[in-house]
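G., the chain you wanted modeled:
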Amino acid sequence: MSTTAAVSSNNIASALIAEMEHEAAVTRTCLERVPADKFSWKPHEKSMEFGRLATHVAEMFGWTPATLQHDELDFAKMDYKPFEPASTEDLLEYLDKNVAEAIDTLRNTTDEQFMGTWTMRNGDTVYFTLPKVAVMRSFVMNHIVHHRGQLSVYLRLNDIAVPSIYGPSADEGQM
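Predicted structure as tokens:
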């Protein structure tokens, strides 16, 4: 039985699970190609390092529980320490863990919970308040896609084959 079929009574979760599973598979293909010996490379002084960008893409799947199980993220109340993989294998394990937790969280979230609000703030400064379903689409999913696009450019600039993402790539041709 597919994961999506198991959630048929929850329309929002079903749609997001299908999308997340697809995006996670494509993302994994990209991250598999990020060589650990290039983790510190960056195309410009203002750019993220290759390894940090790849880790950021992997960590964003992990934002799903934080979004759906809480009503806000307050940077003033947290001590963020980014995961620092030592190898490409570590990076992939981190992605897989975050995706599994995200899918499980989605599976256990009701349509009513998706309509609750979520706020991002830093103390008294509120960046935005949106329904959780909108946060999942924009701040989580679209954000993953955005940074994965950057990651594909890093791959190209390092002469690493760019995988098919939404259609054939110059490296992988036909789908």
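The first strand starts at residue 72 and ends at 74.

Shout if anything looks off.
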